[in-house]
Amino acid sequence: xxxxxxxxxxxxxxxxVVPPTIDAESTxxxxxxxxxxxxxxxxxxxxxxxxxxxxxxxxxxxxxxxxPLVEAGYRVLVPDQRGYNLSxxxxxxxxxxxxxxxADIADLIATEGRETAHVVGHDWGGMVAWDLARRYPETVDRxxxxxxxxxxxxxxxxxxxxxxxRRSWYAMGFQLPxxxxxxxxxxxYRLLERALRGTAAPGTFSDAxxxxxxxxxxxxxxxxxxxxxxxxxxxxxxxxxxxxxxxxTLVVWGEDDAALVPxxxxxxxxxxxxxxxxxxPETSHWVPHEAAENVTALLREHLAEGAAVSxxx
Length: 313
Fold this sequence. Notes:
Elements: H1 11-15, E1 24-31, E2 34-41, E3 48-52, H2 63-71, E4 75-79, H3 98-111, E5 117-122, H4 124-135, E6 140-146, H5 151-160, H6 162-167, H7 169-173, H8 179-197, H9 207-217, H10 222-235, E7 249-254, H11 263-269, E8 275-280, H12 287-290, H13 292-304
Parallel strand pairs: 3-4, 3-5, 5-6, 6-7, 7-8
Antiparallel strand pairs: 1-2, 2-4
């Protein structure tokens, strides 16, 4: 393991993101043998919603959804996934296999004293959510995935769609040792800044947002941990027991995603027993930021269909 111990977010910094009227805390939980930092908000008795970020974000990527979901009557748990920001960063590529990442979330749900939760994921967080729903179906009440394809749909598009293969070039580049870390760190993380601002609508990421992201990227071992997700996916592909997702699933997709073709959204719903697809035109990959209110409304509606919680409280 890396030598740095996971820490928490100072109260003042947390309250600058989550309104002080919302009962929230920054905490560290042990899950699957790894120390994970998480922000937890809302009444402990309310239905649990887990929000999973993707690359190159951290828990902060879901900041716009935390308070509205709490106000709608949910307990919200938003981790820094392993390798990211304040969470532990295990050594070695194998530690970032998808099966380990989804085991983290299954155990994290258990730390809340729950057997099940609603699970929402964006980008790589969505890939973990897909795997969790297939590998640990008993832990997922309702599933929501934002711009993250079902793994089988993704493999099929890579084989049959030259445009998707072209858009996935960066993931192949990440397989190299050390060089991707150097490229990402160069010129104050300019490459990662471009990955956010260069593919999003103007104004989506403020200077203050980028300052927070740079601090997260600059933590000891973080870049390698983040990139090891891609390396592990290529070298140690996941094989859950089933392709089918039984949990009722909402797929939200920004059609102007620079990395993923819209056909993936349609194909992904074919692997769900019960699904709803929401395609958002003129919206990039960064849907939770660009269409924050729309995403929150869709989540509240989807989750309320499976729980004794009204769409608005």
